[in-house]
Design a protein that fits this description.
alpha+beta; 3 helices; four-stranded antiparallel β-sheet; 4 strands; binds zinc ion
Length: 94
């Protein structure tokens, strides 16, 4: 995932550098479902059940990165997988 200014978030993550802010994002419409699935993670017994529960709840979590070079916001929407169509970029106006 790369910003329009050229900053490469994936490359920085591979280097182990977290020189940018990143937030988990859940759609308000799906928030109650997400919370119910998270409670199933806590109640799951055994590592396979726990991993399965985590996989189901993580489908509801997207990611918002703040570019440290140009302040653009890059939103990777939940439920979208890794395709480029799930990525939305916002430019700061002030
Ligand atoms: Zn940028």
């Amino acid at each position: 995932m790369r910003c329009h200014c050229g900053y490469d978030f994936a490359k920085q993550m591979l280097k182990g550098s977290r020189a940018f802010q990143s937030f988990a994002v859940v759609n308000n419409r799906d928030y109650q479902t997400f919370l119910k699935l998270e409670t199933k993670v806590l109640r799951a017994r055994g590592s396979d059940a726990k991993l399965g529960a985590i996989a189901r709840s993580s489908e509801y979590v997207g990611c918002l990165h703040v570019c440290p070079k140009c302040s653009r916001l890059l939103l990777l929407q939940p439920h979208a997988g890794a395709s480029d169509g799930s990525l939305v970029r916002y430019t700061r106006e002030d």
